[in-house]
Amino acid sequence: AVPRLLDMGIEPYLLASTMRSVAAQRLPRRICRHCIEAYPAEKEVIKDIMREFSDVPNFDIVSYINQVIAAKKSKGEDGASVMKEATTGPDGMPQFHLYRGKGCDRCGGSGYSGRVGIFEVLDINEKISKMVMEQATSGELEKEAKKNGMLTMIEDGYLKSLEGITTIEEVMRVSRE
């Protein structure tokens, strides 16, 4: 959003002094809770997810998935009984399941019902504000924002797919637009 606003002719000092945060969202389809099924994630998908979260400090995908499953089961949420715990394989790589809808009468055979938001929120702090004034690139802004804990839209989507809310395919479809 910042480079686009600058391209539109808005002065950097105006952006730096008025912006507090910038949010982006996409709405992938939600997996139907009546026909959700688990399937083992392919090695390439696991590697892609691990690569995406490699710069998130202290993120352990196996612990994350198992905590989500435990929380869903304790709350008795729909679809929690379908969820499978993650493990670490003999090669040290995580092994986990992803989720999809088989298709049923309730979802019209699509495997989806409704939508869910995936988000990216850039909090404008002093450092980011200064970078806007200096007309830093979007890559530089993202790098700094991630240091401050920002999750990218893809990361938020991947988390929602690991939680059985949407599919990897949906995340990729809407986040690449």
Give me the secondary-structure category. Answer: alpha+beta
> Taking Cα atoms only, what radius of gyration do you get, to the nearest Å?
19 Å
Low-confidence stretches: none
**Strand order, sheet with most strands:** 1-8
Report the span from N to C terminus: 15 Å
Instruction: Categorize the overall geometry.
Output: globular
Number of helices: 8
Q: What oligomeric state best describes the polypeptide chains here?
A: single chain
Tell me what portion of residues adopts beta-strand conformation.
Answer: 15-25%
Could you describe the largest sheet, including whether it forms a barrel? 2 strands, antiparallel
Q: What's the helical proportion of residues? A: 40-55%
Q: What's the pLDDT, averaged over the residues?
A: 93
Q: SSE order in H/E notation?
A: HHEEEHHEEEEEHHHH
How many extended strands? 8
Describe the structure.
Strand 4 and strand 5 (94-95) form a beta hairpin. Helix 5 (126-133) runs antiparallel to helix 6. It contains eight helices and eight strands. The strands form four sheets. A two-stranded antiparallel sheet has the order 1-8. It has a two-stranded antiparallel sheet with strand order 2-7. The model has no long low-confidence stretch (mean pLDDT 93). The chain has 177 residues and is an alpha+beta fold.
